[in-house]
Queue: 2 jobs
Job 1
Amino acid sequence: MNPFLARDYDVPKRPIFLLEGRNVVQSTEASAFVSNSVTDSVMYSTNGNLGLRHQSEVERVGFKTEVLLNGVYHEEAMDISKYKGIPCTNEVGASICTVDFDCLLDGESGTLASIPNRKLNLDDGAYRSHCTDVMSADGGLIFNTSYVRTVGRTDLSMWGAQVCYSDFRLVAIRSPASAGSDGNFGFSNSVMGSYAPQSLSMDNVSDEAVPGRSLHGVKCSQNDLNYRIEFVVVISIDQESWDIFHKQMDQIYQCSLTSEKKVTTFTEVECVVNYGDTHRLLQAEVESTQWVRDAESGTASSFSRDRYHMGTGGSTGARDGASSFSNTELKEHGNGDRDGRNNSNFLRPGSWNYHDFHSPNKAQKSYVIKKRFMMPLTPETVPDSVVLTFRACHRRESTEQRPPALPTIEEMIADQKTALEVFWKTFDADLKLQDELIPSRSSLPFVYNAFRMFMVSHGLEGGLSRSGLSAAGDGLQFNLSEYIYYGLYYLLTQPEACLRLLKSVYHMLPQSREYARGLSMSHGAVFPLKTISGMHSTHAANVSNARFHVNAEIGFLIALYDEAAESIAAEDRLLLLELMMESARIWPQCGEWQDDHTVFRLDNIAGTDEYNSNASGNFYVNISARRHIASAFLFLKRQQGHLTEDQMNSVFASLEMTGHEMAELQAVGDGILVPQRHERLGVYMVHDNFDTLIDWGNERATHPLHLNYHPIHIYRRKLIDVPEVLLGMLLYPDEFDQRDFLRNFEYYLPLCTFDSPESLFVMVHALCRARLNFSQPMPLLRSLANIDLDNIVYSAEGGLHFSAMAATLPGLIFGCGGVWVSHKGLQVRPILPARIERYSFTIQWRGAVLRVLVDRVNITYDLISGASLRFIHGTPGERIHLHTGFGRCPETTHLVVPRTRHSQVVQFDGVVLLSDCFFDNLLEYSYRSWYKTLETLFDTYRVLHNRPIPSLTPEEFIEEVVYQLEDGEISFSGINRILQRRGVYLELGTPEDAEIVETRYGLANAKVAEMTEMVLMSPPPVNPGIFSLLKDLAENGVALAVVSYSRSLKQLLASNPQLARLFVASIDGEEAHDWKIKGRPHLDLYMRAAEKIHVDTNRCLVISHHLDRGFDAKDMSRFRMFIDVEDPFVSSRFPRRPYPSLTPEESKERRRDNPVVCRLELSRIPASIDELEDMVDGRKA
C-alpha cells in the first residue's frame, strides 16, 4: 500500500466484542473506553423492514429504542458550505417514533451500579441486557432488570420488548424523620396497600403535611421503607416530520409532512406483578401531549420532547441522564426528597442530544404519548417480579385494520429461532489464525455478518439500504453499486434471497424507465446509482453521474442466479427476463459505431470508481457491457427450455422490443472491444487517459477524499477507490490468466485509497489470485471483516456497513477458497496463505450445500445437503462428484484431498531470515541507537549523582546485546547487565511504557524511536546479493519469512517495499512479546516463523547471524540447515568461535550428519538457488 494515499484500517489488538458460545457480547475491557454508539449499532435489531436502534443504558435503568421503517423516508439536501467535495444529503422520515421504558422510584429513575451485561443471541436473534443491583436515589431499594427485544419474522411489521424487574431488596438507610413519627411518613397502612394509580407518594406530600417533621437523620429500618414505583412506556413522534391524527397509544395514525407517507402503529402494553403463584395486572394511566411553542416567551411548553429523553446537559453531562416525566396535572413538582432537600425531580433536563439518533444541532419537538403503571412497594408488598411488556405493529397505510392479536415476545423469539436453526445447519464460515490471542476472534465477524445478512434477507424485496436500517442518515440510501456484493453473498449462501434482491430492483423499473427517458433514451431502463424511491439521487457538484455499470451488474447477477439456483418458478423467470432485457437494451444508445461499423465505442461513461470521471475507453464499462449483452442472449436461450413461446413473446411485446432491435443489440455486443494491455506496463488501464494523470505525491491524504478535496482535484490524480480493473477481472475471470492478476494487482495496489470498504474485498481477491499460497490477505480481510465490530473508521453513529458485511465471506471464498462461479459451473482452487491455521466455508449451488475445510495437511469436501454436486477442484482441474448414491454407485459425500507442495526446490520449502542479514551494517544502526539512548540516561545520572559513568562501547554492545542469552522471554538481560555494571538498576516494565519512563522497556521504546528516525533520515542499504537470492527463492515457490526481536522491523520493511513483498510472513518484537517467545539462543522465533509459512522445520532453512555462541546443535538439527551470514560489525572486533555440532549419538538419533550450521561470507553469497542447494548438500564449502 501507499502510506501517503491508502486509508488506515488497522484492527486494534483488543476487540470490542467477543463471541461466547452463540452470543455476541461486549468485552469488559472495551466497555470503559468505547462509545455507546458502537454498541448501539452492533446490537441493533432488524428484519429488513424494521430497524430498532437501541440506546445503551449507562447511568439509569431506562431503555430507549428508535424505530426505523423502510419505505417511508425521503431525501433532503444539507448545508454544503463545509464540504469541499460532493455535498451531503440527509434522509428524513425513516424514524417513525422512539419508545422509552423507565422505572421511577418516587419520581426518580433507578441508578445502575455497574455496566450492564449486553448480548446479542445469534440462535434466536434477540438482544438482551441484564442490569444488576439497580438502586433507588436514597439507596433503600435495590433490584435487577432483564431486558429483551426482538423483531417479527412472519410479519415484518411487528416487534416487541420486555423488561423484567426482579429480586427487589429493601436496605436499611439513614433518612430524615420526626421524633415519634411512625416511619410511614404520612401514609396510612390502608393507602400503602392500595394499587390505585392515584395512590399518594412522597412526591405529593409536602413537609408541612407531616407534623413535627425534622431534618435530623435517623436510621430507617427495612420495615419503615416505602416507595411509589412507576413503570412507564413513552412513545415520542417527531412533529417536524410527522402529523399525528389518532392520539392514543394503542392505535396511532401518522402522516409525513413532506412525503405524504402514512403509517399506522398498533401497540399493546401490559404490566404484570408476580407474587409466587399469583399475579396481578396493573391498570394503566395514559397521557398524550404535543409540543406547543409559548407565543410570549418563545420557549417550548412543559411537554416538549426534551422532557422525555435521556439528556446530556445539566450538571452531569452524561449521555444517559435521569429521565423525567410530568404528572397528570401538568405542573412542576418541587417537593423535598427523602433527605429533606428541595429536589424537583420533574425539572427539565439538558437539551436533546442529536447524536443519540439524528442530525447535529437539531432541536426536536415531539408528540408524546405516555402510559404508566403505578404501585406502592413496602416490606409487606415486595413482589417476586414485575414484567413490563410492549408489542407494536407498524403498517405503511392508514387504512390498515388492527391485527387480531399481536404475537407474544416468546412467540416472536421462537419464530426467529426456528428460522435461524435451519440457516445455521447449512451455513459454516470459520477462520483460525496462528497468531490468534483471543479465541474465536477471527470467526466472530464471519458469523456475525452472516447473522446480519440473514436477518435483513426477510425484507429484501423492499431493498437493502447501505446501513441496513441500523441508523438514520445517508446510510438509508439504496446504493445499487453495492448490490453486486449483496448479490454475490446471497448467491453463495441463500440463492432465494438473491431472487428477492433482484425483485427489489425489478420494482424500480418504472422509475428507471423514466430516468432513461430523461437521459434521451427512447427505450430501456437506467437504474440509479443511489436512490431512495427508485429515482436517481444525484448531486449538482457531481459532474460524473453518467454511470450505467449498475445495469451490467444486475445482468451479471441474473445470469449467475440462473446458474446457481436449483429451480426457478415460471413467473420469476418472466420477471428476470424482462429485467435482463430492459437493462441490456440501453447499450446501443450509449455509444457509437466507428471504423466502418466494426467497433462500437462506449466513451464518456464512468465506472463504479467515483474517483475517476467520465473518460474514453473505461475498462470496466466496456467489459461489463460486452458481457452483459452476451449474458442476456445466453439467458434468453436458456429460458426457451422453461418458458412457452407465448410467455416469452408477451415479455417482448410488453417491452416493444423488435427483432431488428435484438439484432442490433447483438451486433453491438460483438462490436464492443475491451481496452488492451498497456504496451509498456503490461496492465489494463482504468481508462484511456489514466496513465497521463498526475501522481499523488508525498502529501498524506485526508480521508475520505471526496469530502476533503474538490472532485477536479481528485479526477486529475492517478488514484483509484474501487479498483475497477481488478473488479472486472473478479467478475469475469475466464478472460484473464494468473499473470494478469499479478501485474494488475501490483500496479493498482499503491494507487488505491481504500476509501470504500468494497475495495478491500476486491484487493483480497486479486492478491490471492496473483500470489496464490504466497499471498498475505489477512491484514486486508481482517480490516474488511471488523470495520463495524471494531469501529475501525469511527463511523458507528452512521450505522453498519452492509457492503463490508456482504463482502467479508466472499473475500474468504473467492480469495482464499479460490472459488469461481460462471456459466461453466463451480470451480474450487483453495490456497492456505501464511498466518492461517485453517478455514472453512459452505457454498450453496444448484440445490446442494458444499462444505470446504482447508488446513495445513488436507483439503476436505463434504456434501452436507442435497443429493448431488459436481465441481472442478484445483489446477489444472479435477472433476469431482459428491452425491448421496444412485444406481450402482455408493454414496460419496466426503472427500479428502492432500495439499500439495508448491516449492520447486528439492532440499527445502521455506526460508526464515533474520532481518539483520539483508541489511549492510544494521547492527551499527542498532549500536548507535542504544548509545544515544543510554547516553541520555547516563547524563542524567552523572548530574544527579555527580559521578562518572562510562559510555557504551561497541565491544560491550556486542558481548552483552548481540550475544545476550535469555533464559526465557525477552527481558533485555544484556542491557540490564550494562546498567547494573554502572550502578543503575531499572525494572523491566511493560511494552506500553513511554520513552521517558525509566524502565528497560521504556529505554527500548526510546531506542526504537531513535532508530526509526535514523532509518528515515538514512535508510540502511540492502545487501544486493541477499536481495537477489531472496528474489530467486520467491520466484521458485519457496516461502520466505522475516523475523526480528526488535520492534523496528515494520519500519525497515516499510522503507523497502520491494524487499517486503518477497516475504509472506514476519515476526517482530511486538509479536514476540505477545506470544511470549523466548529470546536468544532459544529457537522459538524461527519455529514460529516456519509454522506461519506452513513449512516443516526439517525442510526449512534459517539464515541468521552470530550462531557461534550459546546454541545447542541438537535443537538446531530440527531445521534443514542454519546459515550464519558474516557481519563485519562483529567479525572485525571478535574472532568467530566453533559452531555447535552433533555428537555421533545425536547424529544417529536425528538421522542426519553435521554440519547443522554453515558459514556464509559476504563475498561468497550464492548467486542462484543451485549454488544454495550445493551449500546445503555440502558440495560447496
Job 2
Amino acid sequence: MALLPSLGAVSASASPPASTGSKPSADGAARGASGTARTVTLITGDKVTVTPGAKGARASVSVQRRVGATGSVETITDASGTYVVPDEAKSHVASGVLDKRLFNVTELIAQGYDDERAAGLPLIVTRDAGASRLAGADLPGVAVERQLTSIRAEAVTADRAEAAPLWNALVSAQDTAGRKSSDAPSLSGGIDRIWLDGKVKAALADSTSQIGAPRVWDKGAIGTGVKVAVLDTGVDEGHPDLEKRIVSSQSFVPDQDITDRRGHGTHVASTIAGTGAASDGKEKGVAPGADLAIGKVLGDGGSGNESWIIAGMEWAARTEKAEIISMSLGSSALHTQNDPMSQSVNRLSQETGTLFVIAAGNSGPGEYTVNAPGTAESALTVGAVDSADQVAGFSSSGPRAGDDGLKPEVTAPGVNILAARSQHTTGESFYTVKSGTSMATPHVAGAAALLAEKHPDWTGQQLKDALMSTSKATPDTAVHRGGTGRVDVSAAYDTQIVASGSVDTGLIKWSRDPQPIERRITYTNHGDSPVTLRLTLDRGESPSSLFTLGADEITVAAHDSTSVSLVIDPRGVPIGGHTGQVVARDGEGAVAAHTVLNTRTESERYDLTLRAKDRDGRPMAGNITLKGANDPYFQYLRVPEAGLTLHLPRDTYSAMMYQDVRGAHGAHSKGLALLGDPEVELTDPRTVTFDASQAQQVRALTPKPSMPTNTRVEYWRSFTTTQPKPGMYGDWIHSNMIDTGYDSVWAQPSPEKVKVGGFDFTTRWRAPQTALEVSQGSRDLDVLVQTGAKPLPDGTRNLDAVFAGTGTPAEYAQLSAQGKAAVVRRSSAVSSNEQTEAARAAGVKLLLVVNDGVGRLRTWYGDSDWQSPGPVAVASVTKDDGEALIAEIAASSRDEVRLRTTAHPVPSYTYDLVSHHTGSIPQDLTHRADSRNLARVNVTFGHGEKTPAEETRVDYQRYAFGGAWNFPPEPVTRGSRTDWVSTGGGIEWQQKVTVANSLVEVSEPVTYPSPGTHEERWTTPIMRPRMIGGDLPTRENGSVLYFDSPAFGTSGMAHSGRTWSSDLSQRTSLYQGDTLLTEVDYDSAYAWGLSPEPLPYRLVIDATNNSPAMSRYSTTTHTEWTFVSAEAENKTVPLVQLDYGVDLDADGRARRGADLSVTPSVLGAPETDVSAVRVEVSYDDGATWHRQKTVQRDGVWKADLSAPHSASFVSLRTTATDESGGSISQTVMRAYGLK
C-alpha cells in the first residue's frame, strides 16, 4: 500500500551542471528501470520473465514452468495488466480462492514484487470459519508475520525459493484429476482464500476557518480528551506543533522506527491536532487539544503492505481504543469493499464503535475511482475541495464499484494545505504545502474529534451522521463527486438535530416487475425541548415518481428520535444514477439537517446460461473468460458441470474457454481446446455452450517431418475497431502456451464473423525437425524424447523391443535387453534415475517409458545433478500407444517386436509458423506450410564448439503492441540450420541467441512479406558495437542525453549484443569537447544538465573479448562517434553505424584474397548520406596499417584485400563521415581469421 500521492507544490531549483557520473535523471531512472528484464516467481512456482524492449520497443514475456509441472499456461492482457495463470491454478482463480492479482505480472512488477527486489511474496491468508489458526510452520517457506484477527487472517511471506513446494502443499488435498473436475476447488490446511498483500499509497489557518473550526474553538472545544489515531508514514516527534500531543506510537513497518522521513504523516497529524507552536499558534490543527496515537503503516518510501494497514487498524481500534482513526491512504487497484482492508474497517467499526475517516483517493475525476479501504460502508470517506468549495480534479469519484454505493460521503479542504513539515525531510521551514485527499481527510478527522469532545457517548456512526447531515451543501456538485457536501464542523457542533446522513440503496437490480423500496430517515433531537421539523424533498433532476416522502412535518421530542418513511419506486425510471435530498427546517425556516438520497437503477438484464461439453459431448467443468463491450475488464469465472447462469446487462459479450480435452492419440492423450463464442448479443435470455464435441483440430502440415516443441493459441478481441492500435482501452489478448505434453490443439468454429469490432484467432508453432520417430509395422507411435536423456545417435535403425515391466534390475534379469529397446511402465515406485541406471546396466539402446497418466510424459531423465545427461536414450510413449505396444510384445512368439527408429538429436531445420484468421474461427483449421507462404532463413551459429547456447524467435502480431509471448529458448549447437518462417500477416519476427549465460544477441525486428531467402549469423566475426531500433541514442527533456550502446553485435547483421560476463567487457564514455561527462563499464549511459546550445560531443566505446565461449576473433574494438547535439525533446541522435561483409567459414576465417565490404548507415536518419569512407587493414596486430582502395556503389564501399601468407588474421580501422559532419572511427583488432 502506498500514500495517496499528495499533489505537492513544485519548488524551483537551479539546473545542475552536466553530470560527471552515470546517474540518470528522474525520467531516465524510471525508464532505465522499466527497461530491465524482471522475473516474477508465481505462487505456483512458475517463473515469468518480462523483458521490455529498449525505449518503447515491444516487450517479450516468457514462462518457465516449475520442475515437474504439466499443463498449459493461460495469459490474458487487458487494461489492468497481463495475467499469467498456470493450468493448475485456473480453477482456484476463477472460483475466487486465489486473488487474481497474484497472477498480474504487470502489477506485481510495478509494486516491486519481482524476484530481484523481493525475496518473498507477501500474502494475506484468510482461514475457514472452523480453523483456529494457520499452520504456517507446516507450509514450506512460509513465515507468519502477524495475526489479522479482524478478518480471521494472517499476513505471511512466502519464500520464492520454496514456491513450488508451497504450492504442492496448498493443493495436497486434491489430486490432479480432482483439481480439473471439481466444481469447488479448495486449498489445504483450513485456508479459505489467499490474497496478495498489495501496496497501498498515501492519497492551515485558512483551511481550518473554511470548515468553521475557529468558531468551535471559541466555545472552548479543542478536542480535549479525544484520542485520534493517525495511520500513515509516521511522525516527526520533535516537531514543536506535535511534541505535546503524541500519547502513543508504534511502527508496523518492518525494520523502521516511527520517524517520518516522507513528510506525509507529520503533515496529516498536525492538520488534526497541531498546536501551532512553531508559528505562535497561527497554524493550528482542527482539534489542537486532541491526543494522537501514531501508527506507522507506510514506509519511508511512501508505501506499505495491506497487512501493515490492517494491523495498524486493529492496534488503533482495540489496543489504543481511539475514537477516530484517520487514514490518508488507499489502493488504486481496489474499488469495491470486498478486499481485506475494507472488510477489516467494517468489522472493527461494528466491534468497537470507532469512526474510520479515510481518503477517497487521488484517481479522479472519473466514476468508480474511490480507493479501498475508503470503499468500506462504515468509513466516512473524504473527497477534496479547494478554497471555493469546488471539488479538486484529482479527487476520486464514486459511486463504489460493485454495488454503486454512496462514496465519498463528504468533502473537506485538500488543495494547497499548509501544515507541519517533518524535519527529517528536505526543506527549511517548519511548514509545507501539500494537496490531495490525504490533506482533506485529517480536516474531517479533527472535526470528528471536536464533536466527540462534546458528545463522548456518541458512536462512530453517530459522528458520521452528524458530519454528513450538517455539511455545507454543494448543490452544483454531483453527489458521486462531493457526497453530502463540505464538512462544516461549526454547524455540526451547534446542531440540536442529527439526521441520517444518507439514504443509499446503491444499485437496484433490474426486473421486469420492479417493486417500490421503503427506507427510513431518522431524526434525533439532542436538545432539551421538542423540535418541529418541516421536511422538503428536493428531487433535483430525478423523476418525480422516484422518491416519495412519508410526511412533510414531524415533531421530535427532546432526547428522542423519530423516523419518516421514504419510498423509492424504480418503475418507469430511466436507467442510471439518481440523487436527491431531504431538507429538514426548524420553525424559523433555518436548515437543521439534510439527508442525501442515492440510488441507481440497473440496466436491462437477461440470463446468460453457460454450459460446457467435452469431446464426447458429456458435461464438463471449466474456466471461462467473459467480457462485455461496456466493461474494460474481463471476468474469470468457474463453470461447474451443471452449468452457470449469470444475470447480465444487455450488451455484446465475448465468452471463451481454454480447456484440456481428449487429444488425438486415444482416450489418455491430451489436447487443448479453445471453445465458446467471441460475439454473444445479449438482448434476451441466451445459452452459450462451450462444445468440444464440435471443435476442429488446429494443425500445421509441413513439407518435412517436424514436431511442435511449443505452441501458442490466442485471440485478440476489440469491441471498437477491426484495426488494432496502441492503447486501445478495452481491447484484450487471451493466450495459452502449451508444451509437448499436449498432442493436439482444437477450436470450436464461430457461428459467424463478428459484427461488433474485431477478432483475430492466431496459432503459433515452433516445430523443429522431428527428434525421434518410432514405428512398429505400419503404426507410428506417439513418442517424446525426454529432457536430460542421452541422445540417440543421428540416423535410422531397427531395434528389437522387449518389455521390462517397471524397469527394475530384477525384471531385466529375466530377459535379454542388450542393444535393444526396452519398454517399461512409469511407476511411482521406481524413480527415473533408477530406471535409467537399470537400463544402462542391461545394455539397453533406447528406453521407452509408457506413461501411466494423461498426455505425454515430460520429466527429467538426466543425472541427479539436474545438469548432466543420463546414461541412456529415453523417450516416453503415451499410455494408449504404449499399452498397445506391450500387448504386441506379449503376443509375439519371441516376446519382442521390431521397431524402426529415426533420430535427429540436432535439428537441421526448424519451422516457425503462424496461422491467422480474422473475424471468426473457421471450420477448416489446417495450416499448410509450403513454398508459397514460407521464407527461408539460413542461420549460422558461431559460438564455441562445446559452449552451451540457446535460441528463440519471437513473433509480434499486429495486435501485440504491449509485447509478445516468447517461447522458452531451445539449445543450439555451433553450425548451420535452415529456418522456415511464415510470411505476411504484418508479423514482426525477432530472434535472440544467448551464449553460455554471458552474452545475449538480439536481432532487429524484421518482416517477411513474401517468400525469399535470407541470412542470419550469430556470434560470428566481425563483432563490434551495433545499435538497433530500441537502442538508438536520444536527446530527452531538453538537457539529457541517453545512450544504450551494446558492444557485441555480429557484423553484417542488424544485431545488438550485450554481456554480463567478466570475459567480455565494455567501457562507455561520453565527452563534450574534451570534458568527460560520464564513464561507465556497461552499455547504458546518461548525461544530464546539458547546455541547450549546439555543442560537439564524442561517444567512445572500448570492448574486449577474452571469452572461451566466443569466437577467438574480434578481440578488442575501439569506436568513437562525433556529433553535434542541442536542446530537444525525445529526439534521436543520428550516429553513423558500420556493417561489414566478408565471406567467412564456420571458424570465422576468410580467404586471403576475399573482398571486404563496408556498409555505413546513419541510425535514426536513414535519409542522411555518408560522404566518405576510409578503410585500413593490419596483418600484424596494428604495428603497421595499410590504406585500402575502395569502390563505392549503391551505398556500399568494397575493398579487394590481399593478405600475406604469413598473416593469420586481419585487423580493421575504418572511418566514415556523414553529410551533417557526424563521424565514426572504428578499430577492430583481429577482426577475423585467415585460412
